[in-house]
Automatic annotation (TrEMBL):
<dbReference type="InterPro" id="IPR003439">
    <property type="entry name" value="ABC_transporter-like_ATP-bd"/>
</dbReference>
<comment type="similarity">
    <text>Belongs to the ABC transporter superfamily.</text>
</comment>
<keyword id="KW-0547">Nucleotide-binding</keyword>
<keyword id="KW-0813">Transport</keyword>
<dbReference type="InterPro" id="IPR003593">
    <property type="entry name" value="AAA+_ATPase"/>
</dbReference>
<dbReference type="InterPro" id="IPR027417">
    <property type="entry name" value="P-loop_NTPase"/>
</dbReference>
<keyword id="KW-0029">Amino-acid transport</keyword>
<dbReference type="Pfam" id="PF00005">
    <property type="entry name" value="ABC_tran"/>
</dbReference>
<dbReference type="InterPro" id="IPR017871">
    <property type="entry name" value="ABC_transporter-like_CS"/>
</dbReference>
<dbReference type="GO" id="GO:0005524">
    <property type="term" value="F:ATP binding"/>
</dbReference>
<feature type="domain" description="ABC transporter">
    <location>
        <begin position="2"/>
        <end position="241"/>
    </location>
</feature>
<protein>
    <submittedName>
        <fullName>ABC transporter ATP-binding protein</fullName>
    </submittedName>
</protein>
<dbReference type="InterPro" id="IPR052156">
    <property type="entry name" value="BCAA_Transport_ATP-bd_LivF"/>
</dbReference>
<keyword id="KW-0067">ATP-binding</keyword>
Length: 242
């Protein structure tokens, strides 16, 4: 399991942004991390994936472990090699490269020398839209397709845990459902553990097993996804559901 215990993050040497976050992501589950703008969701993912940097005065305290391995203060490379992979924001694909070259770049980042053929085949089976456009420049893809490409690229690194940052951002509802369905299948069929950061609580709780709500750098609520969805008061107040 992936475990955070009393994690604090300081930005600019002074601003305490995460104020002791503890959460557990059991292997094989989808765990949603919900909360409003600025609550600290992205910061939590960056702390896990090693993307916070000392040089910029960003400090992480507390414990972050995946199984028996501590991930805190490890390089992003090391963390990817442990199978913990963050999906970079959808719009950050290499626009001038083809879809397939973008995917192959994901495998390269993982330092994998294995043949990429079987990975590509697997990814194209989940994302037929990417297969159709494999030779097209990534810059010509729609927002939803770029999000799919970002997920596909992360899959090339053989993730055991995938950290997803707001995959629904800016997408039409039909595409949100399509992408969430694929994430659920990747979890069920490939056994990928998922940490799903979302402002779209309704969509996230439909596929998550468990959810946590962050507010101002603290976990204020947690529970099984169906319980969170059923709790009307709580859902309206924290999650904007009605
Ligand atoms: P959003 O959905 O807007 O990304 P979030 O819940 O992911 O929200 P974070 O991005 O983690 O929130 O930001 C948490 C707080 O940390 C915010 O107050 C934000 O302004 C601040 N913050 C984020 N990145 C930095 C940074 N590089 N330097 C200083 N402060 C930052």
């Amino acid at each position: 399991m992936l475990k955070l215990d009393g994690v604090e993050v300081v930005y600019n040497r002074v601003a305490l942004v995460l104020k002791g976050v503890s959460l557990t992501v059991p292997a094989g589950q989808i765990v949603a991390l919900l909360g409003n703008n600025g609550a600290g969701k992205t910061t939590t993912l960056r702390a896990i994936s090693g993307l916070l940097a000392h040089e910029r005065g960003e400090v992480v305290r507390g414990r972050i472990t995946w199984g028996d391995n501590s991930l805190r203060e490890r390089s992003p490379d090391y963390i990817v090699r442990q199978g913990v992979v963050q999906v970079l924001e959808g719009r950050r694909v290499f626009e001038h490269l083809s879809v397939e070259a973008n995917l192959l770049a994901g495998g390269y980042t993982a330092g994998s020398m294995r043949s990429s053929r079987s990975e590509l085949k697997m990814i194209y089976s989940y994302f037929p839209r990417l297969a159709d456009r494999r030779n097209q420049r990534a810059g010509f893809l729609s927002g939803g397709e770029q999000q799919m490409l970002a997920i596909g690229r992360a899959l090339m690194a053989h993730p055991r845990v995938m950290l997803l940052d707001e995959p629904s951002l800016g997408l039409a509802p039909v595409l949100v459902s399509e992408i969430f369905e694929i994430v659920e299948r990747l979890n069920r069929e490939e056994g990928v553990t998922v940490v799903l950061v979302e402002q779209n609580a309704e969509a996230a709780l439909q596929i998550a097993h468990h959810g946590y709500v962050l507010e101002d750098g603290r976990i204020v609520l947690e529970g099984p996804a169906d319980k969170l969805r059923q709790n009307q008061d709580v859902a309206e107040f924290y999650l904007g559901l009605s």
